[in-house]
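Quick board copy: two proteins, each given as sequence then tokens.
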Amino acid sequence: MSETFLEFQIPHQKLFNGIQFPLVLSPNPKAQTPPSSLSLFTQAIKTEKSFLDSVLHKSGAVLLRGFPVNTASDFNDVVEAFGFEELPYVGGAAPRNKVVGRVSTTNDSPPDQKIPFHHEMAQVTTFPSKLFFFCEVEPGSGGETPIVLSHLVYEKMKERHPEFLERLEEHGLLYTRIIGEDDDLSSPIGRGWKSTFLTKDKSVAEERAANLGTKLEWLEDSVKTIMGPLPAIKFDKTRQRKIWFNSMVFAYIGWEDARNDPVKAVTFGDGKPLPTDIVYDCLNILEEESVAFPWQKGDVLLLDNWAALHARRSFDPPRRILASLCK
């Protein structure tokens, strides 16, 4: 139980083993000190941190709705109040920009592009354990950030495609992406190598890539990044269950631009191609099990990157969703 936070239902949630996904918390009007200002809200987060940690662990996603969070700076204060260590965005594919403090834009690619389901930065060895999203400007229409529980995807894939899963567990996945020097905002994977590795120096880029388990092959005006083989299935020790932790569907369907053919972007770890029908059936499973709620201005979504994958639906502008990544 919590003094400040009140659990409530929204129409788009799903119930898994008696637990709402996502779990939605709003201000408790009967609280002794309702979080009616940003400073009272951030104080309540610090005071009730163990409660918030426990509901995130139980559900995998927590939506904070109806709190006084209006700007990127407010959101940064909320992230800071949780006390998780920041994870710099090194090695990720999305074009995004720093806004304030620990806050950046989400994928800056055009609004008509869908971004398929993925665990954040699952294609590199260093990835965030938690993500925050904040709705600063709600979408004209569409633009949801669908979420899905990873262990459910693993269970369904095991049920429907046991032999494929066995191969995946044995070989893992190999990701290949060709990236230019500078950011290409027309592409959902258009982050240039200078932004990807936060340097203009090729030797520094190689060193940082190696730290992420990534090999670089320099081409005339771009670089080929080879990531892996990486495990596609992980074991979540805190919840004692296997999870579907990879960017297979995202890479196979979404890593497409002037430089990249998505079918070649991801293979089994031994270099053999993935069966198209199974990749698309996995996409069906992700869609079937997912939850997509319409964003409201001021929403803060806290996602456990070990528990849930996320995506982005296409939208009509305006829409401004900001993010922060935590170790």
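And the next:
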Amino acid sequence: MEEIKGSLSKPAAVIACIGMTLFYVATLYAPTLILRLPPPHSFNNFMTRRFICAAVSSVASVIICALLLPIRSGDASYLFGVYGIRSDHIWQAVLLPLFLTSLMYAGSLVLLASKWMEHRNQDRRPLLCCIKTTLLRFPSQMSSVASDVLFWRNLVVAPLTEELVFRACMIPLLLCGGFKAYDVIFLCPTFFSLAHLNHMAEIYSRHNYSLREASMVVGLQLGYTVVFGSYASFLFIRTGNLACPLVAHVFCNYMGLPVLFVQRKGLVSVAFVAGTLSFAWLLFPLTRPDLYNERTNSCRCWQGYCLWN
């Protein structure tokens, strides 16, 4: 990493990241505002159009990043490695971040378990019958999920395109620009949160919220994106594998905000506190660079995990 660090100026790296952010957001509105296409006839068509726009902006960011970085090899594995797209250590890259992230949702998971137990107590059928019914319903449920456009947005398209642009492209640029790893961890989420400012106009216009209410909703969302963006950037820099922040992103989108407190269910709060403490204790041990990479000394990484040594 040291040999490519500073090969790009800091202003150039920041300008490139800002440009990618603006392009990512602008592309979502390009069909209507720029191409003057007629409004979509349904919500599914609207989301499909946005999926295509997000994919176009992601591909464009990858190309721009490749042109700006001092890439000296055309080997496919090397090029994919620049963006943290790797097939090695895949189990570690999926399971360890998933477990680590789930600790922050210990309260939510306890609440889900308690609701399942309450439902189980109301359902007096034998456990095997419940399992059989669930298995029989599984194909139809999966078919319903696969046809749900919100499922594709929240768990596939948004995590994949956002991690590709805001982590895989921006972090190598900022590190090559001479920024330190800790600076990048807190700088990169700034661009990530700016990409969500467009939600304020949508909330204000579509949901009939007042400007104050829309500001509060978006402010909470921006705060959450900054915290998560810092965590995702930390995972990417520590491991050098895009699968790590991608898995965390999918899980967080699925779970929503962590449950901190539920009235008359103190166990949820205890679980949240215990999970948070466990998360803080295991954060560095479970993201050790040597768990995800064959070598961490004298390597030619683009994510900076060798710098932690």
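Board note added afterward: The two ends are 12 Å apart (CA to CA).
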